Amino acid sequence: MTEYTVSVDLEACDGVFACLVRDGRFAEAEDGLVTLPGGDREEGRLTATFDDGNREDAEQAAAACPLDAISVEEVEP
Ligand code: SF4
Description:
Layout: E1 4-9, H1 18-22, E2 27-28, E3 34-35, E4 40-42, E5 45-50, H2 55-64, E6 70-74
Antiparallel strand pairs: 1-5, 1-6, 2-3, 4-5
């Protein structure tokens, strides 16, 4: 299984939550923006790394985001 990182540009995210229905790991944070399990928030960016078979879900969430705020990248071994 390949590790991948999901990151969200929180400056772009406006809490439409189209991502939630594509990938159940996305959830609403207390401030109305998005959060991910094990996610780190730093300088307006949320990042979380996963090693599971759900990369496609994250990519669907990225494709569904109307603001193009989500990116999914493979972690180089
Ligand atoms: S779909 Fe995009 S803009 Fe909407 S909550 Fe998710 S990341 Fe934020």
